[in-house]
Amino acid sequence: MRAQDLPSFKDMPAVKGMPHGTAWGLWDKNGKRDNCGSLNLLTPEIAKEAQKEIRSGNSVALNWGLENVHEPGFTCEKFQHNFKDLKPLGFVAWDDLIHINTQSGSQWDGFRHWGHQDTGLYYNGLKHEEIPDPAHVSDNSQHHWSERGGIVGRGVLIDYASWAEKKGIGYSATSRHEISIQDVEAIAKEQGVEFNPADILIIRSGWVRWYNAANAEERIAKAKNGHEFIGLAGNEESVEWLWNHHFAAVAGDAIAFEAWPPKAPYRLHDHLLAMWGTPIGELWNLEELAEACEREKKYSFMLTSAPLNVHGGVASPPNALAIL
Questions:
Q1: Which of 20, 178, 183, 258 has a CB 3.0–4.6 Å from the CB of 233, allowing a cystine?
Q2: What is the mean pLDDT of the chain?
């Protein structure tokens, strides 16, 4: 289904047992269960249009170093990197071993990560207890993203951090500061950004900037042990605006993309991941991208992402590039 064929939020068909605005079944095809959600909007035609965004040819990697966050919250395990000497095998060579919790740093949240909190169901009706069940290892698995060719499309940066600084808006990235849809639209207008269907919306909140400047004590107190974080406002207006723009995915540098903690009934994680099948990127390093966009006076670009190809995958580093 193309973006122009999708219903508006108010006209979305009912899904039994779920709130209005649930997109289950919209991308099912020939009786086959869909596992890619709004990534289905990223067609070859969209990829060809995205390449027209390349002007200077400069590219920016959007993955933060895997060691970040050094002391992650939400009981996430710390990144571990070990070396394996191959001299015992008769070679002058090394291997290395990496152990990560895919939620501890730059990531794509997949559709096995977060369920609809009130019903306990994940995208397209997957049950919580079915996630580790080998019989359902393929359902909502992130490996489907790789099989469809990864993520290739047009990205747009909304640089809230720079805009707020220019406007004299003071805030803490480690508070539940809400970025409103009015803010997003005002920034887009100032930056000369027009949204297109199937865009990948990226919001720079300033959270990574805060973390980079914080000392170890502040990081532990406000990142690892903190409970409030900046993000997009979770409310009715945001939900309808996001759906009606038909973004293929959303991402940002904040811990949760949405203002945290979320508040029912407008938890954006519920709507994006569980109800629509729209990936959420979190903790992306947008500092260099913001500088490049400002320098080139251009806030849209071609974006590519190659998540880990893991059967049953829940989340993944994005391995994302912005090409201006």
A1: 178
A2: 97
